[in-house]
Structure formats: C-alpha cells, structure tokens
C-alpha cells in the first residue's frame, strides 16, 4: 500500500471488530492515524491480510478490497470522469464533486471519488468497485485530458496529458 493512500479508500474503517481499526476510528485517539495504520500494514504487524479477511465485516468491503491496488489507482487517470457529481441522484453519501471511473475488461467499474478539503485542495475521498454503472448513470461524463497528482508535500507525484 502506498503512503499516499488513506485506509478509508479501501474501506478498512468499516472493519470495526479489529481492535487497531476501532482505535483508528476513534477521533479522540491521536496515536492511530492513517500513517500509523499504513505502517502496521506494511510491516504486517497488528494488521495482516489474514486479519482483514477474517473480519466479520470483510464481506462489506470485499469487492473494494479485491479491486484496489496502488497499480490500478493511476489507471483511473486515463479514463472518464463524472463531473459536477450529484450524489442525491442515486441516494449516495459522497462529498466529492467528481468521480473518476474505469470500466474493467472483465466486468464492472472501479470508481474514485475526489473531493476538496477546507483549503480547497483535492483529495481521493473514496474508492469502490461496483458491477454496474449505477454511480455514473445520469451524471455528466467527460473525458479526462490532463491529470496531476500531488503528494502530501505538494510535490507532483504523477502528471500526464492525455
């Protein structure tokens, strides 16, 4: 897992029966941050793939977990985007104003919701997989022609003109 990624993107925050995840979800616990959690995943300490897959809540995130990788995240930049995303059209809770999406060769779609923080900087809000086009149906869809992804320090991580 890449340090640019947030555990929320793959739904780890939903695995509340795992003690370290429960601590991560506790906003009053500053010790277990996203960076700390990712370090435990990398070291396979306190949070291994086996622990994740044995959570009773794993079926809730399984599709997202199985379809997410740091390798397929950049592929979403070579695709289409639903702009001015209107979550209310589909009764969906997402703050983002656009979603990058990729139709998978086999079946379904990978989606990456993008939002703005209080400083108006964009961030990846949510990543998910769905077997249908439900999340982009009736949305304005455009072709992505330029992408820039920055790390937390403002340095360009990926830049491309399509």
Verbal overview:
The strands form 2 sheets. Strands 4-3-2-1-5 form a 5-stranded antiparallel beta sheet. Strands 6-7 form a two-stranded antiparallel ribbon. β3 and β4 form a beta hairpin. It is α+β, with helices and mostly antiparallel strands. It is built from 4 helices and 7 strands; from the N terminus they run ααααβββββββ. The radius of gyration is 16 Å and the shape is globular.
Shape: globular
Give the CA-CA distance, first to last residue. 26 Å
Average predicted local confidence, pLDDT: 77
- Helix/strand order, N-terminal first: HHHHEEEEEEE
Q: Care to count the β-strands?
A: 7
Query: Approximately how much helix is present in the residues?
Result: 10-25%
Number of helices: 4
Largest sheet: 5 strands, antiparallel
Strand content: 25-35%
Q: Name the structural class.
A: alpha+beta
Radius of gyration: 16 Å
Q: Strands of the largest sheet, in order across it? A: 4-3-2-1-5
As residue ranges, the low-confidence spans are none
Provide tags for this entry:
single chain, 162 residues, alpha+beta, 5-stranded antiparallel β-sheet, two-stranded antiparallel ribbon, 20% helix, 26% strand, globular
What's the short story on this structure?
Helix content is 20%, strand content 26%.
List the helices and strands and how they pair.
Layout lengths: L18 H7 L8 H10 L5 H5 L4 H10 L12 E4 L14 E6 L5 E8 L5 E9 L9 E4 L2 E5 L5 E6 L1
Antiparallel strand pairs: 1-2, 1-5, 2-3, 3-4, 6-7
């Amino acid at each position: 897992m890449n340090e640019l990624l947030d555990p929320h993107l793959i739904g780890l925050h939903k695995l509340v029966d795992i003690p370290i995840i429960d601590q991560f979800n506790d906003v009053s616990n500053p010790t277990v941050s996203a960076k700390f959690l990712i370090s435990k995943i990398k070291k396979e300490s306190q949070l291994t793939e086996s622990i994740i897959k044995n959570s009773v809540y794993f079926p809730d995130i399984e599709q997202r977990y199985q379809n997410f990788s740091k390798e397929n995240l950049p592929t979403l930049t070579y695709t289409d985007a639903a702009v001015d995303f209107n979550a209310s059209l589909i009764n969906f809770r997402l703050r983002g104003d656009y979603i990058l999406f990729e139709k998978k060769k086999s079946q379904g779609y990978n989606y990456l919701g993008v939002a703005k923080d209080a400083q108006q900087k964009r961030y990846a809000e949510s990543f998910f997989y769905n077997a249908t086009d439900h999340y982009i149906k009736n949305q304005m869809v455009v072709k992505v022609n330029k992408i820039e992804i920055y790390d937390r320090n403002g340095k360009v991580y990926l830049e491309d003109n399509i």
